Amino acid sequence: MGLSRSASPHIVHLAHTTAAGGAELALKRLLDTKPDWEPSLLIPAEEEENVFVGVSTSTGGVRQLSGASRSGALRALGLGTRLMVQAAITRWHPAVRHSDLVVANSTRSAAYGALAVLGTRRPFVVHLRDHISPEALGSVGYRIMTRLVLPRANGVVANSRGTLDTARRFLHDDAVVAVIPSPSGLGRLQQHSRGEGPLRIGMLARLDPWKGQLALLDAFAQAFPDSDAQLDLAGAALFEHAAFADELRAHAKELGIADRVNLLGHVHDIAPLLASWDVAVQYSLRAEPMGQNVLQCLAAGTAVVVADEGGPTEWVRHGHNGLRVTPRDTGALADALRRLADDPALRQRLSAAAVQTPGLLDDAEIAAIHAGVYRDVITLASADRRAAARAGRSTAPSMRTVGASLAALQVPDPQPVVARTP
């Protein structure tokens, strides 16, 4: 194992679902760039929707349950069983056994990926797309990440500085860390002039209660009670949130705005959609780690409004390339929407500055940065193994660590399990 075998390292990417979530779309874009490594993609089972069409994929294992990490004891037991089965299948998969690096694309794939590489010297990288907190991950998910996954990781790629900060204390001192925005298809987006028609406001996010669609409905109704302004909600109801779409329709009817609210479902080609919006809103009800939607709206030159917390604040400067409003305050959001509706010059100024936001990279540029991080992890892990061999010690934990890690998830507050011997 190592770079000496090949100019391009063999990297296995683990994805726990083929549904078109943000993490899955980001991985598809990354692999579509034909990156500077030899990729293999492993998924447990193919869903009805397969975002990875066109990507060479190996399928094997058991379907991973949605939302199990924040459910009751019985479902959590089902989660644990499925993780163990998937970990065993992943561990012995030929692609993994002959890989230079294993990369987990999500918290769920990180859970069974960490189990799969425990007791081996296989370098392991985790993509962090969620804050490491019980609120974001659920109590079981939080324990898995902090007591099993992050202590085992040789490297992490976080989607924002805020996301990385929530994980740092659980990582080894020598773990490679990087903050890299997710591939968001920005190279296919460009600023367009809005045509004639009523003011159009939009939110690009999967339909999920915490993403803030209900709050946006309230703010929109408050800002435009008697108007021809339109509101587009673009995003699918994934991960067992199908009933939420009906809740949104019912709430829009209660507010008297149903005829001006459009639920568009998942939109494959977002460029024409963003070009039709005057204002784009990100208003998640808890701190957003870093939505790809914010970067996409900035790159498209859409005037953006974001909640003043989390990853989006690392990109949006208030009054320069967007507006930041108080989180969880529909009145403040309504005021921002009215301000933009009443001031076309402000919208134009924010739009012009949005496309000039520093750091808006296309997918190939982001893939090149990933390649450097992956190579650093492989090189440092190889050097660590050589140093350990000279010192007569092992860099791989005992397989007893697997049992200890799983046991730690069942007790209230044990010390984190460090999956690496000194």
UniProtKB/TrEMBL annotation:
Residues 191-354 form the Glycosyl transferase family domain. Residues 75-181 form the Glycosyltransferase subfamily 4-like N-terminal domain. Keywords: Glycosyltransferase, Transferase. It comes from the Bacteria. Pfam families: Glyco_trans_4_4, Glycos_transf_1. The keyword Chloroplast does not apply. GO terms for molecular function: glycosyltransferase activity. Its EC number is 2.4.-.-. CDD domains: GT4_PimA-like (cd03801). PANTHER family: GLYCOSYLTRANSFERASE, SPORE COAT PROTEIN SA. This is Glycosyltransferase family 4 protein. It comes from Microbacterium bandirmense.
